[in-house]
Structure formats: C-alpha cells, structure tokens
User: Which sequence fits this backbone?
C-alpha cells in the first residue's frame, strides 16, 4: 500500500501531519511517500492507494495550486477511480473554484468541486464540531480565516450536529465525492475519530485491522463526544 503526503514541509498546521503518523501505526506495512512542494507528485506516474494533504498558511495556498494545476485531469481521474483522498483544513479550498481575498481579488483553484472560499484575515473562526458521516459520529475542531460557499448538498462529508458546515449558515460540512474526503475538521481527525479511521482503513482494503492504541483512542473519543455534545 502506498500513501502519498503532499507537501508535508508546508502543509502541516495544527499537528494534522499526525493523521498519517497514526495511520502508519495502524497499517505498519504501508509505504509513506513524502512529496515536497518542488517535486512531481508520485500519483502522476505511480499507482497510489491514498493521497493526503493537510492545512497550510494562506500564503502557501496559491503556490500549492500552481504546483498541482498541471495534474488537474489526473486528480479527476483518480477521484473517478475511487482512490482515497483525505484533505484537511484549508487544503480543501485548493480543489474548489477560487479563493477570494478581502479586496475582491481571486486566486483561481483547481475547479474540481463547485465551491469557493472567502478570506477574512482579521477574523479567525474557532469552534468545536460534532457531526454524522454515514453511521459514524465525527468530532473535531475548526480554526480558519475562510468560509466556503457553494452547493455541497449532494456531496457533503458530514451533517452538522454541533458547529458549522461549509460556513456559519450551512449544516453540511466538507466534500465527499467517491473516496475523496475534504473537510475543514482538524484535530487531527484520524486520531480523534477511531471509528472513522477504521472505516477509512477498510476502504483502503485492509480488513479487520486493529487500530493503534485502540482502547485509549476509543475511550478518549467517547469522552470527547460526550463533552462536546454537552
């Protein structure tokens, strides 16, 4: 199994790089490919099972878009082929139509999904999150200078129980298209949500996998879920 991390030297805010560290503990045989921002992604010429991209400083987003733009059609192909993508924090904005700055200028995205983002660098939104993905309750946190807009009614990741969706008026969080999951939820999401992690591992083809530190992560998950619901 090959898991590619895109640009981990710059897409590593909020400790979300630990999503892949934890996944490696759960699936020790997985090969982790770390692709720096000046290198061609492995997914261009190789078959990879999963692609991960984490949150980044806002001034890196345009650079990341420009690096990935030549491979837009390849990314679409992989999504259509059900390759797993996990994209967290503001990295999801790269796959939308554009990011709009406060002055109205726009950074064109990859336009793979019909969403766009608006920045407000004078207002950071911070909140906790509880939602439902299929039959799994998801917990986490949000910390962002942007809000996303657009119609994700048919391809949202999770339905909000507590917190916000794409924006403060939305109750639908993130993007889920085939096995592409893009979400603003940070935490890191895989460590905070062992049931979701087990589901993701099963999608990757690992059956009956035992989660790393399963007892501890399950106890922490149940306690966090209880506290956030209250």
Assistant:
């Amino acid at each position: 199994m090959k898991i590619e991390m895109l640009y981990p030297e710059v897409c590593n805010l909020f400790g979300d790089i630990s999503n892949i560290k934890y996944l490696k503990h759960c699936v020790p045989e997985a090969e982790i490919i770390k692709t720096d921002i000046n290198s061609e992604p492995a997914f261009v010429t190789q078959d990879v099972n999963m692609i991960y991209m984490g949150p980044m400083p806002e001034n890196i987003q345009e650079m990341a878009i420009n690096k990935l733009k030549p491979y837009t059609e390849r990314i679409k192909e992989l999504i259509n082929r059900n390759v797993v993508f996990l994209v967290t924090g503001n990295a999801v904005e790269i796959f939308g139509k554009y990011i709009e700055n406060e002055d109205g200028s726009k950074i064109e995205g990859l336009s793979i999904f019909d969403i766009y983002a608006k920045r407000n660098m004078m207002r950071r939104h911070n909140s906790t999150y509880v939602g439902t993905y299929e039959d799994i309750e998801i917990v986490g946190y949000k910390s962002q200078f942007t809000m996303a807009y657009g119609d994700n009614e048919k391809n949202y990741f999770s339905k909000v129980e507590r917190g916000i969706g794409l924006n403060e008026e939305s109750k639908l969080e993130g993007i889920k298209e085939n096995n592409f999951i893009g979400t603003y939820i940070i935490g890191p999401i895989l460590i905070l949500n062992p049931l979701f992690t087990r589901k993701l591992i099963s999608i990757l083809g690992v059956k009956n996998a035992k989660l790393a530190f399963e007892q501890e992560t399950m106890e922490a998950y149940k306690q966090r879920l209880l506290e956030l619901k209250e």
Summary: The mean pLDDT is 97. Residues 2-229 form a domain with the Rossmann fold fold (CATH 3.40.50.880). The first helix runs from residue 18 to 26.
